[in-house]
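[Automated response] Your request has been received and processed.

Submitted sequence:
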Amino acid sequence: MAVMAVHQFAQCITCHAWSPDQSMVALCPNNNEVHIYRLVEDKWEKVHVLQKHDQVVSGIDWSTRSNRIVTASHDRNSYVWNLEGSEWVPTLVILRLNRAALCVQWSPKENKFAVGSGAKTVCICYYEQENNWWVSKLIRKRHDSSVTSVSWHPNNILLATTSTDGKCRVFSTFIKGVDAKDSIKGTLSDSKFGELIVQLDLSSSWTFGVKWSPSGNTLAYVGHNSMIYFVDDVGPSPLAQNVVFRDLPLRDVLFVSERTVIGVGFDCNPMVFAADERGIWSFIRYLGERKTASSPSRYGSQFSEAFGKFYGQSKHGVSNDTVDTSRTRGAVHENCINSIIPLGEHGALTRRFSTSGLDGRIVLWDLENEQDILEL
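Generated structure:
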């Protein structure tokens, strides 16, 4: 089994992030605080409590280069925390939001970060040296509902978002004076800030976690209809396909290699998806089991079988049959897994990652002995 360690930190965890050397973890125990724990002699000790927000902290990201923490909250605010001596000092970010901030992520170069919100907008934040504060430029009038997740392309310019309006979108976030002109090539080199590169209308339900592959050539995101979507050649003519599964929906995804994705969600156990030589994606297995079940009869009538296949038809011409999975596996989490993040450098192959969930646990996973996954 791929589980490396299980740690019970609270009754519920809304989000978490690791320090650059993985010696500390920052998490929100479903309130307005951020607790930072350090591993001391095989025990986790609480060393800092970040108290500035007024409502639940919905997003945390810890930068790997500058050792800064950015937080976002339902109180419509975001703070950048810098370690000065032994204290974390907050700097307010001017978001100009009238609804909750729902997610946040540093860009690859860490000169910007993106905040998704319930105000149907995305804030692209950057540092203004002259005024010594963080300001934001807003991407407006594109989303029809709350922005649930954001993900940066490796080129530091393109940003993918998902929303409860059922769509996934890719925007240009080029900011003059912050980004270099040669950082984006090809037909996208002339794109302006906030320009919509592509809108993917593949889901008939809310969409959640979205991630780019290590090369940036493939985009994966999940829907609340127990479907996961894969998009290649993101641009004017994308190639899209989906995989339907019969268990509970996913909430977040992570590329562990260019052709392998781990999905986590309401089923409390990570799911492995992979692409074959033809580029066709399919469900492989749960991390808590070795083989998938193959008996479709245990899931109900022929009507439900046909219903699942009906929803499995991709709007771009690629279809996959409904995936049959087993409920006999043993799950490490006892409630919905709401986030999955890599441990270590974000390279072409991610062997270690962590998950957190509504059960208050953070689980460390290691794929070192999962040869069937590493060989995909």
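Summary generated for your ticket: Residues 3-178+191-288+331-375 form a domain with the Methylamine Dehydrogenase; Chain H fold (CATH 2.130.10.10). The helical segments are 302-311, 371-374.
If you did not submit this request, please reply to this message.
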